[in-house]
Amino acid sequence: MLESRRRMLILLGTSGFIAAAPNLLAQRVSPQPIPSPNAPDPHFPPGMNGPGIGPKTGERRANPEDEKQIRKDVDKIYELASELKDQTNKTNSELVLSVSFVKTAQQIEKLAKKIKDLSKG
User: What string of H, E and C letters represents the secondary structure of 61-81?
Assistant: First the structure.
């Protein structure tokens, strides 16, 4: 009688495991990643709700006053650079440089920085 109970329990345990196996295996699905709150909404194409994702083209225009000022400053740099070149040809570079030479170089630097800032907008 004990032997028949053991067989009955083994049979019920085995059949219960076989019946539960598909459910146990189905629960091992990998979790879905949570979307970032900062990510663009995939349900709306760019441009429908807010600005587009791509770069904006054709919106930046050159300021005519800045362009005139840049041209004027470039001409001034050209004059100062020519003057600086003449000074270096006249003097011996092994000796100490004159104060006017250094001031001219500083003016060129300031104008170059001004042109750079104007061209950035």
Answer: CCCHHHHHHHHHHHHHHHHHH
Name the token pair of 114: 């001004």
Token pair belonging to 53? 């994702």
Distance CA 121, CA 114 (A): 11
Cα-Cα end-to-end distance for the chain: 97
Q: Is 53 domain-assigned?
A: no
Number of domains in the chain: 1
Residue 96: which domain range?
64-120
Question: What are the tens digits of pLDDT across the range 43-80?
Answer: 766 665 555 555 555 556 667 888 899 999 999 999 99
* CA-based radius of gyration for the chain: 40
Q: Which amino acid is at 22?
A: P
